[in-house]
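Re: [help] complex structure
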Amino acid sequence: MKLSQTLPGLKLKNPVMPASGCFSFGKEYAQFYDLNRLGAIVMKAATKDSRFGNKTPRVAETSSGMLNAIGLQNPGVDNIINEELPFLDTFSTPKIANIAGSTTEEYEEVTEKLSSHVDAVELNISCPNVKEGGIQFGTDPALASEVVRAVKRKSKVPVYVKLSPNVSDIKGMAVACEEAGADGLSMINTLTGMQILKEKRKPLLANNTGGLSGPAIKPIAIRMIYEVYPHVSIPIIGMGGIETAEDVLEFLLAGASATAVGTANFHQPLIMPEIIDALPGILEKYGLSSVHEAIGGAHDENIASSLYSS
Amino acid sequence: MNLRNMKVAGNRKIAADTYELKLYTGPDFKTSPGQFVHVLVDPPHYLRRPLSVASISRDELTLVYKTFGEGTKTLAGKKIGEEINILGPLGNGFTFPEEKRVMLIGGGVGVPPLLELASDLHEMGKSIHAVLGFKSEQDVFYEEELKGFAEVTVVTEDGSYGKKGLVTEWLDDSADIFYACGPNPMLRALLTELEIPGFISMEERMGCAIGACFACTIETTDGGYVNVCKDGPVFPKDKVVLP
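Output below.
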C-alpha cells in the first residue's frame, strides 16, 4: 500500500502530520513515539517577538470538541531557531513552520528568518484568538492576496496558506491565495465560538471567544475542502476533527492531499502513529491501492480541476 | 511516558459530590506526592481530566474528584472491573522539607494530594499539622485518613463542623514550612498571611497536560511563564503569579 507522496517542498512518507499549535515543537510527543513515523512535523506558530498569549482559562470543553484561546504564545522566531529547531533537526521528517504576524512586515520578517531552516511554511492568516493576529488577512481576499505575495517573495521554501472557516466564501479565499502564488492550502483553522459560565453569567474563556476544534467541526472541514477542491490546482492539507484512519480517508476523498491531526492528540497522545498503522487496512477496505488514488475521489471524474500529482 | 488502561478497584462517594476512585495500576507505576494523572472520560466529553494523586500503594492508585460537570459524572458511573485510560503520572510533585514542623493546608478538593504527602512526611519523622477547609459539614472528607499521620484541624465556612471560618483564620503559628493546595483565593490569602517558606499546588484547566498546548500557562513573578502541567503543578510560593 503506497502511503507516500510528494507535495511542494514535502516528501511525505504518509499523509499524517500534527496540526500547528497542538504539538508545540515536538519534544513532548517524542516521549511517546519516534517522530520519524510522522509524514511531517508542523510547528507551533512563530511571531517576530515572544508572546505570552491570553490569560487563563484558555480552554473549555464542548460536546465532542473544545474551545481554545491560547493567543499565539511562542518564544519568538529567534528562540525557535536557536532553541527548538536543533531538536527537530535530529529527525528526518520534513518540517513545516507556521508563521503568524499582525502586519505584512512581521510576516515577511519571520518568513525571511525561518524559511531557510524548514521544508515549507504555513502562513497563519486565520488565528481567531488575537486582536492583531492575522485573522483580518484571513477574512478579506484582497488582504490575503497581499500578504501571500509578500511572503512568497521572502520565502525560500513553498508556502501553504492556512485558511479560516470564519468566512462566507471559502472558495473565493482559496482562489485568491492560489492566484497570489500560494503553493498549497491548509484547511481549516478553528471556528469562533463561546461558552458561558452560568454561575458567573460571563464567558468562560478569559478571551471571551475561542476557536472550536475537535470532531464537532469535521463535517464543516469536509464540506469546505470539497467546495474548494474543484477550483484550485494546488494541494490541500486537510484538518478539523480527525481521530481515525477512516477520517483521514474521508478528507482525502473530499480533496485533501494530506491531513493534520490536532485536538485528538490531547485526547489520545498516541493517536497519530495509530492512524498511520491503521491507514493501509482502511484504504484496502474501501478498494484503494494508494493514498494518491483516494485524493478527490468523492468528486466527479470529469471536473475541470487538474489534480495535483507528481 | 506512561499511558495505560487501569481497572477500577473501587469508586465510592466520600462527601457531597465527592468521589474516591481506586484503580489497579498494573506493574511499575510509581508516583510522588503532588503529581497528577490525566484521566480519559467517556464521549462526547473530549478532554481528559487532570486529577491529583491522593495515595498510591503497591498496585493501587487513589484519586479523588468532584462531580462539578457532566464529564466527571461519567466517572462516577464507573463500576468495579471497568477500565479507565490513564496518562501519567505527570508534573512535578512536592519537594520534601529540611524543616521539622510542617503545616499542610487544603481547601476542598485540594485536600487529596496532601494525604500521600502526609504519609511520606510522617515516615520521615516530621511533625505535621493539617488544616483542612470545607464549605460545610457534608463536604468534609479525609479527616480520619489524615489523622493517621498528622494533627488535624477541620474548618468549615458555615461552622457546621469543626472550627468556623476560613483556613487562614486557623493557621498554625509554630510551623516552619507549609504545603498548600486549594482554590486560588485561598492560596492568595495564604501568601499574604504566611511568612514561612512554602509550596503551593496549582489547579488549571488543561489540554494535553504534557506541556505541548499551552492551555495552562501562567506568569511567573520574574516576568516569564510556566506551564502548570509540566513545570508544576507544585511551585515554591514566590514563583508564580496567581491568576
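Chain B touches chain A through 31 residues (CB under 8 Å).
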